[in-house]
Inverse folding.
DNA sequence: TCGATACTAGACAGACCTGTCTGGTAGCGT
DNA sequence: ACGCTACCAGACAGGTCTGTCTAGTATCGA
């Protein structure tokens, strides 16, 4: 994958689409709006993306790549601190002005069919998150890392939803306390 | 509110819309589809609902009323058992065949504007859930019922998302264990 | 110099969207 | 008998949707 040589027009489309999709939702943003905002001809758009759905899939995988890169840069030690830093970052991000919830969950909500490529891309991202949690927990010495990772995924999903729909300060406090209760005490 | 006398056509529209909206999303279902499936004339539809958005709002409040009625009927005692019964019910429901996530979260994902009437209806439902949790926790003797309720809301949101996107059996186990870790131990 | 690729502008098709409007029927309370 | 309300069928307007197509320009490697 990603064997293409770089294309400014394609990048502009993807960046613009990402901004609009996240802020307004997939179905609410038409191709015409995207190409107008990106300053790109329609033929160019359909040259790079066979269909709008393919653009959506590219949007999802691009967001996933961006998040992986961000986590990659967070090099706190030990693992327990890294885990808390990740949650702290999500809280900080969720409290920001333009926050509109989780791009993956919002997108999945607009794609009911679980077998749709877009949904598969979302599922892949979720698998990455869960495995990231599990690895950090295992490195931290949690003997039930698998189970705790599943719980942290629950917590993460609740977090991204809560920051979108509820009072950020309240959610922040709840997340902090929830982590205390969920993470096993150190020996 | 709800001072109208009953109307079969209106009920049929609301029931049909609810089914289609939940299964396919709001923006993916047009008014024409709804009235055709409900067997209702277009004029009748717009007689009962001033606009599609008003129908969506009615859909949200109807779902909320249905959930409240269901919880009302669950009369397990003591409060701790009732709380667990509610979560058990959500797990059972989430494992069912037609499950497509939480109607409120899916709807909110398609309405970015927090001030939109539809979003306000969603927010009201969430307030009810949180207060329900808080009251049950307080009755159960949790001194930090407010905070625990916030955490349970996080858990609930994670649950409804997880059952839609991940493996139900795994989520079920994670929810069970999470409750054990989150709920304060009995004296 | 040739040919492929990336891009531009914009018309067009065909479907679907919400919402309005016409015109007519049936029942019900007064 | 009258008027109100609920309902039916379906045409219509004006817009938006995705996707295709025509036609032409610019760049770059072989």
């Amino acid at each position: 994958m990603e064997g293409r040589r770089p294309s400014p027009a394609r990048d502009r489309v993807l960046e613009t689409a990402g901004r609009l999709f996240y802020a307004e939702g997939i179905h609410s943003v038409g191709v015409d709006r995207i190409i107008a905002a990106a300053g790109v001809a329609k033929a160019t758009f359909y040259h790079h993306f066979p269909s709008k759905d393919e653009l959506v899939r590219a949007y999802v995988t691009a967001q996933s790549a961006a998040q992986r890169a961000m986590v990659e840069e967070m090099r706190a030690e030990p693992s327990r601190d890294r885990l808390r830093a990740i949650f702290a970052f999500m809280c900080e991000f969720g409290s920001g002005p333009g926050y509109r919830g989780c791009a993956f969950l919002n997108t999945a909500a607009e794609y009911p069919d679980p077998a749709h490529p877009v949904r598969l891309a979302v599922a892949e991202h979720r698998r990455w998150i869960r495995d990231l949690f599990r690895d950090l927990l295992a490195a931290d010495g949690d003997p039930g890392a698998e189970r705790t990772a599943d719980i942290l995924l629950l917590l993460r999903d609740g977090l991204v939803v809560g920051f979108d729909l509820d009072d950020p300060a309240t959610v922040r406090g709840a997340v902090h306390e929830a982590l205390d209760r969920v993470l096993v005490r150190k020996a």
